[in-house]
Amino acid sequence: MQPERRRAAILDAAVAEVAERGFARTTSRHVAARAGVTHGLLHHYFPDHDTLLAAAFEKVALEEIDEANEALASDRDPLAQLREITEPYGPGGGEEAYRFWLEAWAEAYHSPTLQETSRRLSVAWHELVVGVIERGNAAGVFRCDHPHETAWMVVALSDAYALQCQIGSGLDPHEMNHVLWRLTERELGLEPGALARTLDLGGPAPVS
Fold first, then answer.
1. Among residues 25, 45, 51, 129, which one has the fewest Cβ atoms lying within 10 Å of its Cβ?
2. DSSP assignment of the chain, as one string?
3. pTM for the complete prediction?
């Protein structure tokens, strides 16, 4: 197998192991066995365990960001794009991808390598949201004086509510939606209820 294909196979095995076991319980030996390589060969491609985990996280996160960009590109209306990224779990990988992010953040507390990867990916996701807000400003749909600050608010609230949903706190995703929508509408100078009106994909938005 060519080196690039071998590395990709190991990375796919790492993603699969983390999805099943979580970051904390995945070992390099688990990944090597799944990929059908020796432990030594695995470390030829990934010099240490933290590097392997960070690469697995980056693979999943970048795929999600690519999916989100593709979803946003399908509709250039800034309000529709904003609605898309502020729905529960937003565009991209959905609930499973969010679990990957949340577990990676928890593990990053003990891993500088994973922490640095997380920082870069969080900035990339933030910039995606900034782009939506700036397009809305340019089109005269939004009136936001601080797109970067507002984008962090949207991202932070989305992540916080997703965490609550993941840990079984009893928070309904639609409740999350309406709180996030109300705050986002206020930040962007939208009329109250603008994001909760009938969705383009059919049917009314949930009523609070």
1. 25
2. --HHHHHHHHHHHHHHHHHHH-TTT--HHHHHHHHT--HHHHHHHSSSHHHHHHHHHHHHHHHHHHHHHHHHHT---HHHHHHHHTSTT-SSSHHHHHHHHHHHHHHHTT-HHHHHHHHHHHHHHHHHHHHHHHHHHHTTS---S-HHHHHHHHHHHHHHHHHHHHTT----HHHHHHHHHHHHHHHHTPPTTGGGS--TTSSPPPP-
3. 0.83
Choice between 158 and 136, residue whose per-residue pLDDT is larger: 136
Which has the closest alpha carbon to 33: 7, 63, 10, 53? Answer: 10
Give the per-residue pLDDT at 196: 81
- What pLDDT is stored for residue 68 in this prediction? 86
Least Cα distance to 71 among 85, 86, 87 occurs for 85
Cα-Cα-Cα-Cα dihedral sign, residues 184, 188, 194, 200: negative
